Known about the structure:
The chain is an alpha/beta fold. The protein folds into two domains: 8-126, Rossmann fold; 142-180, Arc Repressor Mutant, subunit A. 46% of the residues lie in helices and 16% in strands. It has helices at 23-35, 46-56, 72-82, 97-106, 118-126, 142-156, 161-168, 172-180; strands at residues 15-19, 39-43, 60-64, 66-67, 70-71, 87-92, 110-113. The strands form two sheets. A five-stranded parallel sheet has the order 2-1-3-6-7, sandwiched between helices. It has a two-stranded antiparallel ribbon with strand order 4-5. Strand 1, helix 1 (23-35) and strand 2 form a beta-alpha-beta unit. Helix 6 packs across helix 7.
Amino acid sequence: MVEIIKRISDFQDKSLLIVDDDNPFRDRLARSMEKKGFKVTQAESVKSAIQKARENKPAFAVIDLRLGDGNGLEVVNEIQKSKKESRIIMLTGYGNIPTTVAAIKAGAIDYLAKPADAEDIETALLADPNKKAYPPDDPMSADRVKWEHIHRIFELCNRNVSETARRLKMHRRTLQRILSKKSPR
Length: 185
């Protein structure tokens, strides 16, 4: 397990800004992080997040890279302007090396691929940013990651099977079979 150098109770400022346009994911994460002791504020767009960051200057932030009205790196830059010591984690379903480098250069301390759970996010937020993170003890299986990705695209396509199948470049019936099954472990 990753060694957490601090607990949230060790911090005076427990404010956490969660920025994600996936409403169900953002709400679930906010509830989980509140149970862990964070004081959570939510935003679903770059514009809203920048406004909330200016008003509250969060000590912690979890920001999705791709948002409906722009790039999450804009929010990272805004938080870094007003509160350099903020601990910022970037989340994305579209991970690649250039965006990882851009996020770290902008001031993020870590970069996690979706779907990340509250435990992974808490560990990343509270870990020593100068130490290398350990791999998770119980990572998701490849089948589970694939299942999560398909369901995420399905939700983004407003649960339209034909549109989802087209975007995933798979046959509609194959997609229907996958959607009818329970999630793998």
